[in-house]
């Protein structure tokens, strides 16, 4: 691996892309610790320390939420906007047609996503300001409305800048920009997780629990990597055919279907939706009402939350599989190109067979994501140990790391260098 990095560093174009990506990450991290005007960072830290919702949300924002930083909203508005647009592509014919128009359609969808991101950032910024005001985290007592305008606009502009930084990585850097920034934000919470484990080791003397968590952490990473690369290969045979003076076909190949084809998107979808009840509860002054008690069931460490989380991840995994794969279209393409699955008749029988395989594979991938996502909740409730990094964070970090490695690998293979996967 060190040899691979050294070879990559020798290629000027790849070296410049890596340095550019690192520069963007540094800018992102600086903006995540600079507080906006009229906010008291110390008061925010004390107000959010006992709030499980903001503690969880702070992981995805790289701690910017705890500082009241310029990038406090981080990439969460963009993620939510992407989720909304993808869901609407199924429900609205205009957006569905755009998604099928190739590069031009994708550009238009990207523009719509950007505008949606700004609108969501504005809404979240307003909500966050009222939370700060109710928690007495403002450093001013007069001219509050002017301070509100400055704070909300700064949060909104910060989200727009983060979105722009991610797009710059897409164009001039290595990997998916938004994923890289999300990875950097989560990784910045690593020292807090290590400090928490050190506290349990030195102060609470829970040696076996800490060792068990470390071993389980490494095992989970290895399992995620294995499942990410796992795939089901459907064998395909192509009949021989003569075109002019040349003979084509007559070969055996396969259709690879990944077990975890949707990546971490079902987890992000489910967690984003389940954030809403806790968000509403955090802004409620009277928490003794029946509605408030119902919302409290969605606590990120509660059993009810874990069950709903588990079910929603499976549902979104099937939703994503439906969007990505069309068995009927795959069967038609096979028939047009003279291909067939051994033992399966072309046409409807082929599409039914692919649908059956796809359903089983999706279930395995969904169960994998669900178990990894709720595992920290189970450990926290059974072992009474809570650390800053959860299953969702580990899934995102490993997934982004693998995607980035594959991206770098493909660029190096184009220049005939050995890569990470050799």
Question: What does this protein look like?
Answer:
Helix 2 crosses helix 10 (177-187) and helix 6 packs across helix 7 (93-99). The protein has 422 residues and is mainly α. It is globular and about 85 Å long. The strands form two sheets. It has a three-stranded antiparallel sheet. A two-stranded antiparallel sheet has the order 2-3. Strand 2 (241-243) and strand 3 (246-248) form a beta hairpin. The chain has a domain at 1-189: Preprotein translocase SecY subunit (Orthogonal Bundle). The protein has helices at residues 2-10, 12-31, 41-48, 52-60, 64-67, 76-91, 93-99, 103-134, 144-172, 177-187, 190-202, 207-229, 265-282, 290-296, 303-324, 327-336, 348-383, 391-413; strands spanning 231-238, 241-243, 246-248, 252-258, 339-340. The protein contains 18 helices and five strands.
SSE diagram, text form:
Blueprint: H1 2-10, H2 12-31, H3 41-48, H4 52-60, H5 64-67, H6 76-91, H7 93-99, H8 103-134, H9 144-172, H10 177-187, H11 190-202, H12 207-229, E1 231-238, E2 241-243, E3 246-248, E4 252-258, H13 265-282, H14 290-296, H15 303-324, H16 327-336, E5 339-340, H17 348-383, H18 391-413
Antiparallel strand pairs: 1-4, 1-5, 2-3
Helix pairs in contact: 2-9, 2-10, 6-7, 6-8, 7-8, 8-9, 9-10, 10-18, 12-18, 13-15, 15-17, 16-17
């Amino acid at each position: 691996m060190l040899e691979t990095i050294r070879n990559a560093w020798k290629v000027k174009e790849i070296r410049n892309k890596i340095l550019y990506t690192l520069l963007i990450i540094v800018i992102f991290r600086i903006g995540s610790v600079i507080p906006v005007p009229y906010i008291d960072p110390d008061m925010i830290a004390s107000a959010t320390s006992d709030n499980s919702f903001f503690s969880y949300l702070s992981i995805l924002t790289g701690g910017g939420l705890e500082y009241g930083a310029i990038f406090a909203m981080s990439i969460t508005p963009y993620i939510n906007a992407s989720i909304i647009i993808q869901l609407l592509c199924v429900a609205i014919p205009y957006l569905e047609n755009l998604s099928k128009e190739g590069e031009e359609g994708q550009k238009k969808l990207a523009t719509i996503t950007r505008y949606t991101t700004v609108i969501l950032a504005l809404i979240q910024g307003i909500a966050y300001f009222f939370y700060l005001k109710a928690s007495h985290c403002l450093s001013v007592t007069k001219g509050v409305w002017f301070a509100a305008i400055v704070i909300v606009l700064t949060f909104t502009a910060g989200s727009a800048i983060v979105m722009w930084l991610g797009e710059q990585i897409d164009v001039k850097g290595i990997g998916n920009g938004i994923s890289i920034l999300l990875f950097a934000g989560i990784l910045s919470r690593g020292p807090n997780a290590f400090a928490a484990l050190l506290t349990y080791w030195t102060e609470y003397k829970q040696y076996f629990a800490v060792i068990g968590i470390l071993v389980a952490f490494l095992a989970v990473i290895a399992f995620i990597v294995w499942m990410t690369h796992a795939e089901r290969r459907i064998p395909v045979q192509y009949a021989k055919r003569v075109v002019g003076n040349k003979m084509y076909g007559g070969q055996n190949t396969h259709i690879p279907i990944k077990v975890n084809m949707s990546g971490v998107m079902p987890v992000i979808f489910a967690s984003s939706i389940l954030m809403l009840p806790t968000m509403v509860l955090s802004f409620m002054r009277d928490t003794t009402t029946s509605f408030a008690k119902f919302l409290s069931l969605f606590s990120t460490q509660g059993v009810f939350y874990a069950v709903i989380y588990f079910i929603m991840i499976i549902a979104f995994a099937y939703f994503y599989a439906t969007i990505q794969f069309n068995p009927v279209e795959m069967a038609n393409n096979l028939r047009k190109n003279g291909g067939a699955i051994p033992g399966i008749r072309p046409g409807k029988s082929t599409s039914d067979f692919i649908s059956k395989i796809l359903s089983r594979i999706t279930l395995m991938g969904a169960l994998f994501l669900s178990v990894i996502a709720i595992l920290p909740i189970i450990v926290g409730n059974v072992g009474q140990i809570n650390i800053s990094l959860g299953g969702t964070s580990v899934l995102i970090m490993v997934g982004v790391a693998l995607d980035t490695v594959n991206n770098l690998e493909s660029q190096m293979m184009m220049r005939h260098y050995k890569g990470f996967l050799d």
